[in-house]
Amino acid sequence: MAAAVPTEATPLAKNGGDSSNNAATPSSCPVVGGLDPAAVPLPVAILLPAGFFLWGLVTWLRLLSKMTDGQEQVYHGIYMSLFAYPLGLAIPHARIKKAMSLAHGVSLLQGVTLIACGLAWHSTFGFDDGTPVSVWAKYLNVYGMWGNTVGILWSAMAGATDLMYTSKDTVACRAPRWVENVEHVVLKSQGLCNIIATVMILNQFISTIEGGSN
Asked: Which of 78, 106, 145, 188 is the 20 to 30 A CA-CA neighbour of 195?
């Protein structure tokens, strides 16, 4: 007989039911159902996004010295979108399916945001290429976007739920403390970077508007 395939963690007990399993590690979660028969095989679901990620990383490093700060963000936007498309195939295999679905959708949205930022970086926002403020704002922006994707993927695969409010109250099992700590570091640092980058972009945009009005 084939072994059962772990799927979504069981819902939290309701109406005063037993919730003693809430502190269990993901590996000890009770199995609910089986793998969706429409799901693609696990190797395909893993290799497609992993392959796109590695190819995009190598290409980025190869082109890094040739791109402007704006072009680099456009590249990361397209790169992130390409990586995000096949994440949808991994949803049935994820420990927390809602988190994998969130990673899929949010990463596509962030890809569009990076493309828009990159196209407006010099012509609209007024950043001068290669200046410290441009470089810092660029990398804070890029890290913030990628960090969000990585943090949500970590939750989907490792079972971290502390900061995953879309699924936190619907799963009974909890990941080990170190798994949750990794999620805290990644998601809180990327959120801070996103805020700082946005403030820097807005400040530069305001300076450009004021300078153009003189």
From this structure: 78
pTM above 0.85, yes or no: no
- Quote the CA–CA distance of 66 and 182 in Å, as a whole number: 34
What span, in angstroms and rounded, lies between the C-alpha atoms of 8 and 96?
A: 6
List Cβ<8 Å contacts ≥24 apart for 159-165: 159/9, 159/25, 159/26, 159/29, 159/95, 159/96, 161/96, 163/187, 163/188, 164/96, 164/98, 164/99, 164/102
What do you get for the CA distance between the two ends of the chain, in Å? 78
| Rounded (10°) CA dihedral 47, 87, 2, 173 | 130
For residue 118 the two structure tokens come to 């990159």
Tokens for 153? Answer: 């993927």
How many angstroms separate the Cα of 186 from the Cα of each of 6, 37, 173, 183, 200? 26, 33, 21, 5, 21
What pLDDT score was predicted for residue 147? Answer: 96
Residue 108: other Cβ atoms inside 10 A: 17
DSSP conformational letter for 24? -
b/e map 32-59, b = 16+ CB within 10 Å: eeeeeeeeeeeeebeebbeebeeebeee
The tokens 């590695």 sit on which residue? Answer: 54
**Amino acid at site 144:** G
Tokens describing residue 83: 């990586």
**What span, in angstroms and rounded, lies between the C-alpha atoms of 26 and 198?**
36
pLDDT digits (tens, 9 = 90+) for 95-109: 888 899 999 999 999
Task: List, in sequence order, every beta strand (DSSP E) within the chain.
Answer: none
